[in-house]
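User: Fold this; tokens only.

Assistant: Input:
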Amino acid sequence: MMKRDSKPPTVLFGQVVIGPPGSGKTTYCLGMQEFLTKLGRKVAVVNLDPANDTLPYECMVNIAELVTLDDVMDSLKLGPNGGLIYCMEYMEANFDWLKEKLEKFKDHYFLFDCPGQVELYTHHSSVKNIFAQLVKWNFRLAAVHLVDSHYCADPAKFISVLCTSLSTMLHVELPHVNVLSKMDLIEQYGKLAFNLDFYTDVLDLSYLLEHLTSDPFFKKFKCLNEKLVELIEDYSLVSFVPLNVQDKESMVQVMKTIDKANGYCFGDMEQRSLEALMSAAVGADFHFSSTLAVQEKYLEPNVMTLKEEMMEL
């Protein structure tokens, strides 16, 4: 008998955009959609947040057509957290609906705008199961975990962010990119104690402990914070990429990091589009080097301080 030639399954690439409420997930999806479209990619944004009723981007698939948080809260008398969990479980029970919607965009690059409830990515299994089902449908995904950069200005909050990011990475089980969002607003929350690389590369966290022990409230939790820092450093998984969605260079850095994580390789045409975009004059849509300026401001003096402290040790 003659064997029929079977076409290999189509590989689909994309990002699942996760993070706590207010971290800028929807804004990121809008900015990344516009940026990738200018490079020539066909982008489909999928809203998986049943609480998101204001979508600034062009949405190809919207979970609101299947279920909304308001309807669930009204009909089942649930609060917002319980309602979101129910919505995700309902989505998990209706994979056929999602598959039918996604099949219309087989030649697109996908951005999945996900809910902001942290527990969905650290404790509950529904979102994890949805991502696993997408992988079974031959999606090559990277989890883009957005964290508001203002947490860098508070050592205690930054340690909490590191623990949350680590827990999310272990629970979601996807190639993972942690992003410090809203870099253009970072100085509004106070001066950073260290240079920006200290936070993005998650360097020696003992310096953060020294800052914490200077606060009488956190001094009594010194042993607990030491153990948390040891846990983070032992796994050695957490690092961040800085992002300002209005900064071309920042967007390119994030895009390349994600492409490396999910295995997407762009061709010569997209490379030429990228070069043309980066060489264009500054316009209303994107700006140059604003994130770099923040990084340089916190570079030299603080690096010298770290070097001097290490010399003393």
